[in-house]
Write a structure and sequence with these properties.
Elements lengths: L12 H21 L6 H8 L3 H5 L5 H24 L8 H18 L1 H9 L10 H17 L9 H20 L5 H22 L4
């Protein structure tokens, strides 16, 4: 993924609405076709705009992808921060994990394009636009666990980060492949929540 030129920052209400239309169109286009196949012409058409109008705000597809990533992080941060704030000495980590997985499932439905792009541009790769999201989420969880005095047996801080990163990636991969029908998806999310919660309880001495 080459470095993208920065998107134009919208200043007026109508411009912000147009940017939101473009990003929502990009979510749907990338979700259905993937990053490589989704083009700016198709995104513009889905948004009801000309390509020239799209380029007023986003100089290229990389800029759109970067904006989708920032959009996802902006939605994720307050939701996760409020839940992670519940982590304290003696807290029920399993319940916190279940809530986080449920929130992740809701975010995945709201940001299908972001989740699809992570399949082509894995967050583990340092040059992926999703890398910052992954690191921010891991930092948030690790910081909360350390503040609460929760750690793995042996007290190795690098092991705490490894465990948290594994949980984050497990949730991302599983949600990206969850059934689309409501009943199947609900069952998959419930199973995922139980699995990750059990793993967290087993791995962290404070769980």
């Amino acid at each position: 993924m080459t470095a993208a030129r920065a998107a134009r920052e919208p200043q007026q209400g109508r411009s912000r609405e147009t940017v939101e239309r473009i990003l929502e169109a990009a979510e749907q286009e990338i979700s259905g076709r993937g990053v490589a196949a989704a083009g700016t012409r198709a995104i513009a058409a889905r948004a009801g705009l000309s390509v020239g109008a799209l380029y007023r705000f986003f100089p290229d597809k990389d800029a759109i992808v970067d904006a989708l990533t920032r959009r996802y992080l902006a939605d994720l941060t307050p939701a996760y921060a409020a839940t992670v704030a519940q982590v304290a000495p003696g807290a029920d980590l399993a319940q916190v994990v279940r809530t986080l997985v449920s929130q992740a499932a809701e975010l995945q439905l709201a940001h299908p394009g972001y989740y699809r792009l992570t399949e082509e541009l894995p967050p583990e790769d340092g040059d992926s636009p999703a890398h910052q999201v992954r690191e921010s989420v891991v930092d948030l969880f690790v910081g909360a666990l350390r503040s609460a005095g929760v750690g793995t047996p042996g007290g190795d801080p690098t092991e705490v980060r490894r465990v948290v990163a594994l949980c984050v990636e497990t949730v991302r991969h599983t949600l990206g492949r969850a059934p689309v029908d409501a009943e199947g998806r609900e069952a998959a999310v419930e199973e995922l929540s139980g699995m990750v919660a059990a793993y967290v309880q087993a791995r962290f001495s404070g769980g």
